[in-house]
Each structure stands twice: as C-alpha cells, then as structure tokens.
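Re: [ENG-882] Designed sequences occasionally contain unexpected residues at chain ends

Forwarding the minimal case from QA. Structure tokens:
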C-alpha cells in the first residue's frame, strides 16, 4: 500500500533538543526540555539528579566521558545565574549525546527523552519488547489487544525503511516480534483521540496507518480516527467477522469500498452486469457483524453490496433519513436504526425480508404502515418516536411472530389504559406479546378479551350490513395464523359466493337448538364499564318500579310454565324458553308481570342505582331443570336477573335493551341463601318462600366480585357453608388419597360444558351421515361409562364442569336437581350429589378432524369457532360445547401447556394426505373441489408454537443432512406411523416436525436417529424409535409396543387401544425429554449405545444404536445444541463491550472421564475401571488361574443372535435376540447386558435385581472352523462355526443354566452338523461388522498359522 506523508518526519530526521526554561518545584529546580524530531515536538521535565543518573548509566554502557556533564553544586544551586548557566550546559550535553548516536539512540537516553512515547523508532522498539515478553500469553488468552494509531503509524513507517528489523542491536526490540504477533492476533481495538498526544504536537488523526500486517483478525473496533488515515482495511476481508467503526466515517463507502475513490465504476465480484466497470471488488465473505453506530452517515449507499453475509447491522446514532439498499443483505437478522432522522418507512419488507430484531427508537416516526408485512419480525423497538394514534398499532398487530414490543416515550403513552388497547390489536396473540419489557398480566388479558368482544360485535354488525353485497371477509384469521400461513395466503382461493359452507349447513340445527347453552361473547361488552348501558339499565329498573302500584318483594316471569318456543318440549333440557309476552322494557306496559304480583305491598320511592353487572349462564331448578344465558344485576336494594329474548346475539345497545326481559327481582332481605357451591366456578341463589334455586356460572374473578358485592346485604339465617376454599381442595375431596399423590399441582379450569351427541341427531341428515362426525357416540365406551346421555332422544348432556390437572382431564358431573332439593347449609351436599371421571391427558388429544377448512363466516361457523372443541380420548370422540366466552381458548391454552409438560408417554395423531404428506393432528380436513387451502393452515383456536421463516424454510444443507439421517436400519421393526415417517423426504421432514411434534417456541429440528430404546421403568421391553433432536428437546417417536410401557392402570390403558379404521390418520406414541431437564449422558463402551438421564426415573432412556458412528454423530449434535441453549446472543444492545460477548468462549472441561459441558450437562464416558471389570468377568470365566497380563478385550460390540424357528415360512423363520459380543485375544463371548440400570441413578436406593453382565456362551477362537457370510439365514449375518470340543479349562465356572437356551441351538443353523456349534450373529453397524471379521481373522491366523476360511452363502 502506498503511503505518502510529506508533512511527517522521516525516521532518520534530524533530532534537536533545547531547554526552554525551568521551574522551581519545592526545593529543587526542574528543567523543561523541548525535543524536536522532524516536525514532531514534545516537552520533557527533569531535575539535575535525573541527568546525573542518566550520565552514570551512559558512562558504564557507552563509555561516555565522565566530565561531559556539568558538575554538581551544593551552595547556591537554585540561584538564577547558576540555573541559567546550567540550563545552557545541559542543553549542550543532550545535543552532544544525540549527535554521538545519530542512528540508534541508547535505550536509557531514549526513555529519558520519552522517545518510546513520541518517536517512531522508540515507539516500535518499546512495542516489540512488550510483545517479546507478553505476546504469547496475550495470544493464548484470546483477549482484545489495544493499539493506538500512533503505534500503528510507527510500525508502518518502520516497515518502509530499508534497514534491519533490529537496528539498535537489541534482540528484544526486533520488529519481527511485532509482525509475528500481528499475524496471529484475532481481536484488535484502535482508540484514537481528537486532541494532541500528551505534551506533543502530534495529532493522531493525521497519521496514516496500515492494517495489512494483520493476517488473522476476526474482530476489529476503530474509534475517533479519520477514514482517510485507515489504510489496508480491505486486506482483512479473508478473516474478519466483526467490524466496528465509531466517530470516524461520514459514509459507509469510504470504509467498505476505499477503492471507490480510485475507480468510478465498480461492481462486487460474482455479479453479472452489462454496464461498463473499471474494477471488480471482492466481497467481505466472512463479515457477519457490522457496527457503524455513532458516525456521520447520511445514507445507506450501494457499498452494502459488498457485505452479503452480514446478520447484525448497527447504524444507530447517525443522520439517516431513508432506509434503502438493504435488499442486498439477504442474511440480515438484526438491524439497529435507532436515533437517526427517519420520518417515514415505506414498504420496508421489500428490503428487510428475514429481519427478526428491528430497533427504530429515537426517530421521528408518526406512522407504522411500512412495517405491516415484516412477517418474520420478533423484536421491535419503537420507543421515543412521535406515534400518537393507537390505530397505527393495527399495522403491526397482524405480524405473526412478534413477541417483544417497546412503545415507551411516545405521545400515545398518555392515553388511559393504552397498554390493554395496544395489546387488543394483537387479538389472540395478546398473551404472547411482551410490551415495554413487561409481561402481560392476567388482568390485562381479561380487559383485552372484553375489548375484543366489543370489536367482534361491531364487526358482526358490519358483516350483516354487508351481506347483501356478497362480500366474504375472514374473521381474525391473520391474527392467529402461524407465520408461514401468511405467506401461503396467496395460495388460498376464497370460496365462490354460490357455494355454501359445509359447516354452516352441518351446524345450523345445532346453533338454533343450543342457543340457550352458551353466553354470546358480544354481551360481555355490556358491563359496568359501559356507562351508557348502565344508565339505561338503571332507568329501566327504576321506571319499571315506578310503574308498579306496589313494591316488589319478589317479581318473576314463569320459567317452567311456558314452552311453546322450545325445540324439544318436555325433555327437561330446554324448558327455560322465551316467555310468550309482548313486554319490552321501557317500551310497553308490564301487564304480564303485574298480574303475578301481590297487591298489598307499597311502592318505594328511592332510586335504585346499578352497582354491578354479571353475564352468566343460569341453571334454574324448580319443577324441572332449565338453563339459559342471564344478566345478574346488583342494585342498591335488590338483585335483578334478566335474559334476552332473541336467539341472535345483540350487537348494539339498542337491540339489547329491546330484547331484555326480567326473570327475577328480589330485595336483598328476601334472599334466603347466596353462596358458592363450587369455588370460583358457580354460586347459587335461593329466595325465601320459593322452591326454585338458581345456579350462576361465570369467570372466577367476576363471581368473586359479585359475591362480595351482594353478601354484605344478605341476612342469611343459616350460616353460609363453603365446601372448600379453592378449586384444588374441592376437586381433591372426590379423589382417593393415592390418586392425588401424583403431584397434581394446581387445578385449572372449572369450565361449564355440555357434551353433544352428534350421532343421535334427527333434525338434519347431513349431520348424522357426514363422515366428519363420529357416529353413535352415545354407545361408545367412555360416554357409556360416564353416562352422559340419559335417553337416546337427547342431543346434549346435562351440564358438567371440566377441570384440568397436571395429568388428567377431570369431568365433574353434578345432579343439580338433587342439590337443589337439599338444605344449602349442609356441607356434604355437593360431595354426595356429584362424581368425578378422570381421563389421562396423555391419551387425550384434539380431534384430528375437528376443523373445517372453509373460511366463510356465518353464525353457525362462529358458534363452532368460539364454543366447540372436539376431543379424542383414546379412540373415543367427545364433542364439547363451552358455555362461557373465552373458556374454549383458555382451555385450549391450558390443555396444550399441560400436555407439553407431561413427563410420560403420550399419544399423537399423524394426518396423512393422498400425497403421503403428514399434517398437524388438528389441521383441517382436505379441502373440497371448490376451494384450495394450503396444507399448513392451522385453525385459529389451536395454540401452536410460533415459528420464524428461517425455521420453516431451513437451509438446503440442513434438509439434505436430515434426509441422510432419516435412514432406518433394516433390523428395526416399525409400526405404520414410523414407516410413514421413514418415507418422508426434503421439506416434508421439517413440516412434519413442526406440525406434529414440536411443543416449544422457535425450536429447530437438528438431527434424526433411528434406534432401539429402553426405558428405566421397563428394562425388558426394547422398542423401535425415531429420535428427533431439536434445539429445545429430544423427542422419542415410539413403536406401537410402547403401549406396554405406560405406568397407567389397566382401566386407563383402554384408551391406548385405538380402534380407528380411518386411513387418514395414524396414531403413535411420543415421549419428550426437554433439554433443560437433561442432567447427564452416559456413553457406552465403544460408542455402541448411550443413555440420557433426566430428573426422574421416567426420564432415563437408553438408545441402543449398535453403531459407533451413529452414536458419535448424535452426541456431537447434542453438544452443539446444548451450546446454543446455554448462551443465545441477545439482539438488544448490551452494556458490555461487544468483544466480551464473542471473545469469551466457554467450553467444557474433562475430569475423571466426565466431560462437564458448559450447559452443566455431564457426558460420562467409560472409565478404565469399567473396562477392567468387564475384562475380569470374562477372564474369570475363562480360567481359574489369575489372568495373564496379555489378556485384554479387543472388541466390544452389540449384536443380535439369530435363532431359527422351525416350521416357519421362509420370510418369518428367524428371531433376533439382543446380545453383547466380546472378542479377546483368544476367545469369543456372548453376554446379556443391562444397558439401562447402570451406572445407578442418584435417586436409586438399592442396586438393580440383575447384574450388568451375564455370560451366556463362549468359544475359543482356535476352535473356530469357518465363517459363513450371506443372506441364507438372515441378511448380512455372520455364522461362526465352531468345533464342539470345549477344552477342560474353558468356562469351567459356568453353570448349566447359562447354556439352557443356547444349548438347544448347538446343532441348528446353516448346514448344522453333529459336533459343530453354530453362532449366527447379526452385527447392525457396517463398521463394527468389518472390524469383527478383520480382528477375528487376525487372531485366528495368529493362533492357527493360516488364513481363516470365509464362505459366502445365498
């Protein structure tokens, strides 16, 4: 690199020195020395004693004349005349010394005049000496090394000289030490400064320096330098991964393409262009992080074409006003544009395709319209902008992967409850969004649900108004789609208007019949927060009271006497029907009600104010059982119960008030009991002198508030009895003590539900005959067991309450009629009138066929989406209707979370399409001919982990690797589901994993292993498994034999016996071990197997790969994944220096055959003691004498012994029995080995019942007659044929039971003759098979002095 600096001194520039003055410090004089080297000058201060000390050293080292230095003076040493005279003499002394040594200044003189700080020879020599002593330690430590621009300038100037690298004769100051160090240095920091250096006139910003001497740099940080003085930066392209430039550049081009100053037209290499170019510039191939924050950059220029691999880009604290040219950065994941001058963003998605973290804080943004299509965005910082309108959040509310959002210090933050209003824009994803660093609370989520209900009500009204226009609008579909659904939305063909939705026809009879069984979500918006509703309600109540001529001790309409409108008159389920009166509150006279009122009571004149409103589902028990949605209103003096007359939910306040009817008005003094019957789920009301009892169901918080509002006003004669303080204690009283010992933890739920019997429908043949719904579910085992339906005519069950525990789905069946007839004060009433049925969560999953693929919107479709869940308990199909709004979504969220936390084997359903592609178990059914829906579309009610685009569309190299891993060994027996998995190719593997297996956020499939597995709980059952390693967990997809591995009772195991004949679905079993629960990994001898150990006995699994290469690859991938799990780089700005994040690499350490990984997981390898124990066991069996020192184990391999079953056909004539084969220098042994129990887990209280090794057979190598290879007995098996002449010393300690089984097989096998023993051995691993043959042949040749006969068969 050519460097011109005419204004700077040459290394051989004249050195001049003069003493420009002196000053008195305490009692001595200090002389001020000015040193000039070329154009550079600086000052040094010394007293006379310093000169004297220098002179003595020079007289010794350089033989300087002793009388050259002016002599000491004792008297009058500080007198002015003496000081001036000595000043001239000392100046002459110093100049004489400099003239004496014109080329190489002695070190003591150099240090005296501060040459090591300001003069290039001295600077270079000092640096070389420092690196001579510390260079190796600095390189080994891998820490950041700091070099100032002046030091780099000195080295650069030295290299331009035609002189030896060690001019002054001091080997320690050789320039070679610097060059050796810079060639190997990896982390460099160059801090410049604006002011002059020290006492000199040297300005570092004017000193050019060359970076081409650095050959291995990974990271460099430069600050306070001028871009023009940095030379040789492009020479770092081959290695540099992280580049940071601060306070140094006015454009990106002068840093990334300094060559642009010489070449007007340039293009990056590898780009085809028709334009004339003068230069092809190499790209920064290794650069992944570029930090150019705190510079003076005004635009993002075309120089970014040269950094295509950059993932982290920081351009904060610059002067940018536009976002441009970033489309060239295909790999960009994290972008920081904070504290710039951005005012508007337009179509940013065209430039930031795969962005995950975007920091836009400290700008001047007023709108977010340009961010609406950043579908991969996870973290977004918009703090300190000018965002004032909440509607702007709609632009980012549809982003499917957004998890962290910051809006602090924006004008919108002063809006009351702005947090909940912002979160409401995210609809169903509100709970997943962390706003301003604070996790969303349950209270906020409740408020969000109310806001959503209000919004849906408005949308419903708008849709009804638009129905005449035939406009189909999907409702909230984009809010809950996983991120790739948004991309695939272009593939959707919206159903034509002429084709009706299948589900609309199927559910139409149910919507009408079930209107009394659920509370419409739109009603939730009419609460005490809606002041207009409260005002009208108060006015209606008081107006009705004033119109009456008497006060109202107890006013009610008939709930049981009128059933003209009931769709099922007289069956006891729909008796609570609409009263056949013309009353409209506030619009007509209440003549019907007046007829039912006593005439002897007087009217009260006080105004009744509404204190609280509660929407609930009310079950009333009088002459029969009736149920319908009700509005419970607490006023100052009375309790009022309303219901709505219309079957269609009211969307406006006017509609609601027109359809509101009064069921009950009762003063607090007339209430006999008002108490919780089921904690947090239901309270009941009983009025004096009436037999009817009302049960109200709503959410826990609302019930508690209403209860605390009413109870102080009620004078209960009987003391209120609450069976238990909370739901957990309440449920526990129904269970045996041993049932509750499974650490059930907190009980969730308490949802009021009804079961639908779809098979008995007679109102619409489409429902009964459609294959989407199960037929005759009333006769199925589960339904008949819990007695859901009392008669074949009923399509709905009695109301029940659904609870979730950590391992069970609990159904509480309450006989409300019996409860109502009992005395409310009895504590055991609910216990004696109820029972609980428990279904294991591990056998329960969402019905694979529960979701319609159409997106048309109708009342029936909306009812299904908001209230209906179809479950599969084993092979039973259960259709559940949730009575209360949001209960369904709460249940699905809790159900999914609890099921993912199960530490036991659970069922999974794999959906198979015609193409063989697997779909998620809760996906829609295949679309009809009139509409095409992408196979990846997920129903909005099923909570699935959110994925980023990089996970859904992984690199081709990863897909290729997974395809190579997905090769199932031929000896494994596979069920239908495992066979289907083994046939998946390419992208199908990734989609299968995310749709069917993945349980956590943003986990990526990394490795597939086909192997046999053993569970600690069932050490005798070896089952085939497909092991999937992700970045968060290890998933074991098990063969059908896993049904015998569960620790459930025999009653519960009935759920495992799947009776589905549906070819669209395959059911399998899955066990999940989360990596955060992984404690240790035990690696078997010769890498033949490994065991993963979790915190409990249920989480200990051995994988018998029987293949050292397969084990090695899996463990290698596991260690890599654990490293990622341990430390994920934070996308937010870190307070630490950024080198500390990348420079300190934490690696594991090996102690006593244990590799303690940086994630704290132990990898335990076989110790010498373990191999010694095995050697002792086989040696002891071999001979009674102590084994010789030459006895050792040559090979340990897991094999199968092939047994021929006589009388079978050719295809099924062999049985594989797992064995361990040990090859020593003289013998071959077969053993049964316990692969799962050893080494003992920490919680084991006693040793296992079986020994680790049990010797079953042994032969001497010298007795081997021949080896048969081929396919005749078993493909690729080896048959070892021994002469049956055991020596007197062989196996003399073995008892006969060791040969009980193998003895019968002594003459069986291929060509078995009398006097021969055939061992038919199948070695699964090809490498192990070749190693066994070669070692066996070598030992046989050593013992028998000839080659081993090997014969090929079949």
């Amino acid at each position: 690199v050519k460097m011109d600096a005419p204004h700077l001194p040459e290394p051989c520039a004249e050195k001049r020195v003069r003493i420009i003055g002196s000053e008195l410090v305490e009692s001595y004089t200090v002389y001020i020395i000015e040193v000039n080297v070329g154009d550079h000058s600086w000052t040094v201060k010394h007293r006379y004693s310093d000169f004297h000390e220098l002179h003595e050293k020079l007289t010794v080292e350089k033989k300087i004349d002793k009388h050259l230095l002016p002599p000491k003076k004792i008297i009058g040493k500080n007198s002015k005349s003496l000081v001036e005279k000595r000043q001239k003499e000392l100046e002459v002394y110093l100049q004489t010394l400099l003239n004496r040594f014109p080329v190489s200044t002695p070190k003591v003189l150099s240090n005296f005049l501060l040459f090591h700080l300001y003069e290039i020879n001295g600077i270079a020599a000092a640096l070389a000496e420092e690196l001579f002593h510390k260079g190796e330690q600095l390189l080994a430590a891998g820490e950041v090394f700091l070099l100032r621009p002046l030091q780099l300038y000195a080295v650069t100037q030295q290299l331009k000289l035609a002189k030896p690298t060690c001019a002054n004769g001091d080997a320690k100051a050789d320039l070679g030490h610097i060059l050796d160090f810079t060639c190997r240095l990896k982390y460099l920091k160059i801090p410049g400064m604006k002011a002059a250096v020290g006492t000199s006139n040297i300005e570092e910003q004017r000193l050019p320096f060359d970076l081409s001497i650095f050959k291995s740099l990974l990271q460099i940080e430069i600050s306070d330098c001028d871009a023009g003085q940095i030379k040789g930066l492009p020479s770092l392209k081959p290695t540099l991964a992280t580049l940071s430039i601060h306070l140094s550049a006015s454009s990106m081009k002068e840093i990334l393409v300094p060559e642009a100053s010489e070449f007007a037209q340039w293009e990056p290499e590898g780009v085809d262009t028709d334009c004339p170019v003068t230069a092809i510039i190499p790209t920064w191939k290794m650069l992944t992080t570029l930090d150019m924050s705190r510079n003076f950059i005004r635009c993002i220029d075309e120089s970014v074409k040269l950094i295509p691999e950059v993932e982290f880009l920081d351009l904060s604290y610059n002067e940018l006003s536009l976002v441009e040219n970033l489309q060239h950065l295909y790999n960009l994941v994290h972008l920081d544009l904070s504290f710039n001058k951005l005012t508007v963003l337009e179509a940013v998605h065209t430039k930031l395709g795969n962005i995950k973290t975007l920091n836009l804080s400290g700008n001047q943004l007023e709108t977010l319209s340009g961010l609406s299509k950043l579908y991969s965005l996870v973290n977004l910082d918009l703090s300190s902008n000018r965002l004032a309108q909440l509607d702007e959040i709609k632009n980012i509310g549809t982003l499917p992967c957004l998890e962290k959002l910051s809006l602090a210090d924006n004008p919108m933050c002063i809006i009351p409850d702005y947090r909940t209003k912002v979160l409401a824009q995210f609809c169903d994803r509100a709970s997943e969004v962390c706003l301003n660093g604070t996790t969303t609370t349950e209270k906020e989520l409740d408020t969000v649900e109310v806001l959503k209900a209000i919004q849906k009500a408005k949308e419903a009204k708008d849709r009804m108004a638009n129905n005449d226009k035939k406009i189909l609008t999907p409702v909230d579909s984009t809010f809950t789609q996983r991120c790739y659904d948004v991309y695939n939305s272009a593939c959707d063909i919206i159903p034509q208007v002429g084709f009706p939705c299948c589900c609309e026809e199927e559910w139409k009879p149910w919507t009408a019949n079930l209107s009394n069984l659920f509370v419409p979500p739109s009603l939730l918006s009419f609460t005490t927060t809606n002041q207009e509703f409260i005002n009208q309600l108060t006015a209606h109540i008081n107006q009705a009271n004033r119109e009456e001529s008497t006060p109202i001790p107890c006013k009610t309409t008939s709930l049981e006497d009128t059933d003209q409108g009931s769709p099922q008159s007289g069956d006891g389920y729909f008796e609570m029907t609409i009263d056949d009166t013309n009353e409209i509150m506030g619009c007509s006279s209440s003549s019907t009600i007046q007829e039912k009122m006593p005439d002897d009571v007087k009217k009260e004149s006080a105004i009744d104010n509404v204190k609280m409103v509660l929407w609930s589902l009310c079950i009333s028990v009088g002459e029969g059982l009736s149920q319908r949605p009700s509005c419970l209103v607490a006023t100052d003096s009375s309790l009022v119960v309303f219901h709505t007359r219309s079957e269609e939910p009211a969307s406006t306040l006017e509609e609601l008030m027109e359809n509101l009817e009064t069921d009950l008005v009762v003063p607090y003094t007339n209430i006999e009991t008002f108490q919780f019957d089921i904690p947090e789920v239901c309270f009941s009301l009983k009025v004096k002198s009436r037999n009817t009892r009302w049960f109200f169901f709503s959410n826990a918080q609302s019930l508690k508030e209403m209860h605390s509002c009413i109870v102080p006003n009620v004078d209960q004669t009987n003391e209120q009895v609450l069976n238990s303080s909370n739901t957990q204690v309440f449920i526990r009283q129904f269970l045996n003590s041993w049932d509750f010992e499974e650490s059930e933890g907190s009980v969730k739920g308490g949802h009021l539900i009804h079961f639908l019997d779809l098979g008995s429908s007679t109102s619409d043949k489409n429902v009964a005959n459609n294959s989407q719904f199960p037929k005759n579910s009333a006769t199925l085992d589960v339904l008949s067991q819990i007695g859901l339906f009392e008669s074949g005519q009923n399509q709905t069950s009695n109301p029940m309450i659904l609870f979730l525990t950590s391992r069970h789905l609990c159904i509480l069946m309450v006989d409300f009629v019996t409860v109502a007839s009992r005395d409310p004060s009895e504590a055991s009433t609910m216990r004696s009138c109820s029972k609980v049925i428990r279904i294991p969560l591990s056998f329960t999953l969402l019905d694979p066929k529960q979701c319609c693929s159409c997106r048309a919107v109708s009342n029936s479709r909306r009812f299904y989406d908001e209230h209906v869940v179809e479950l599969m308990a084993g092979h039973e199909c259960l259709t559940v209707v949730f009575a209360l709004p949001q209960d369904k979504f709460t249940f699905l969220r809790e159900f999914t979370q609890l099921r993912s936390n199960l530490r036991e084997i659970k069922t999974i359903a794999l959906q198979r399409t015609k193409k063989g592609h697997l779909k998620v178990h809760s996906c829609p059914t295949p679309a009809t001919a009139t509409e095409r829906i992408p196979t990846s579309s997920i129903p909005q009610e099923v909570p699935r982990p959110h994925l980023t685009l990089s996970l859904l569309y992984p690199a081709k190299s990863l897909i290729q690797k997974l395809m190579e891993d997905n090769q199932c060994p031929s000896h494994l027996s596979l069920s239908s589901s495992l066979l289907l998995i083994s046939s998946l190719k390419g992208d199908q593997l990734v989609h299968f994993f995310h749709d069917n297996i993945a349980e956590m956020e943003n986990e990526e499939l990394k490795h597939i292993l086909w192997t046999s597995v053993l569970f600690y709980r069932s050490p005798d059952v070896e089952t085939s498994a497909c092991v999937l390693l992700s970045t968060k967990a290890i998933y074991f997809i098990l063969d059908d034999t896993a049904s015998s591995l569960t620790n459930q009772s025999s009653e519960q195991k009935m759920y495992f016996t799947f009776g589905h004949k549906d070819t669209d679905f395959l059911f399998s079993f899955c066990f999940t071990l989360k990596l955060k629960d992984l404690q240790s990994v035990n690696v078997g001898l010769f890498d033949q197997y490994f065991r993963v150990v979790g915190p409990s006995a249920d989480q200990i699994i051995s994988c018998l790969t029987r293949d050292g290469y397969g084990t090695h690859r899996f463990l290698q991938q596991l260690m890599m994944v654990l490293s990622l799990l341990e430390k994920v780089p934070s996308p937010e700005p870190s307070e630490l220096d950024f080198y500390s994040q990348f420079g300190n690499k934490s690696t594991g350490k090996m102690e006593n055959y244990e590799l303690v990984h940086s994630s704290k997981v132990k990898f335990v390898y076989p110790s010498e003691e373990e191999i010694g124990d095995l050697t002792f066991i086989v040696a002891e069996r071999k001979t009674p004498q102590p084994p010789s020192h030459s006895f050792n184990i040559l090979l340990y391999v897991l094999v199968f012994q092939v047994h021929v079953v006589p009388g079978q056909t050719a295809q099924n004539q062999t049985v594989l029995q797992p064995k361990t084969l040990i090859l020593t220098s003289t013998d071959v042994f077969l053993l049964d080995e316990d692969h799962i129990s050893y080494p003992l887990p920490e919680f084991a209280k006693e040793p296992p019942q079986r020994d680790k090794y049990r010797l079953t057979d042994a032969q001497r190598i010298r007795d081997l007659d021949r080896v048969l290879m081929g396919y005749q007995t078993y493909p690729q098996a080896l048959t070892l044929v021994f002469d049956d002449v055991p020596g007197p010393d062989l196996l003399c300690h073995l008892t006969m039971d060791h040969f009980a089984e193998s003895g019968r097989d002594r003459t069986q096998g291929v060509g078995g003759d009398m006097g021969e023993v055939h061992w038919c051995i199948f070695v699964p691993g090809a490498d192990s098979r070749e190693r066994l043959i070669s070692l066996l042949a070598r030992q046989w040749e050593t013992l028998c002095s000839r080659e081993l006969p090997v014969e090929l068969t079949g």
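QA comment: On inspection the terminal residues look reasonable. The chain has 33 helices and 53 strands. Proposing we downgrade this to a documentation issue.
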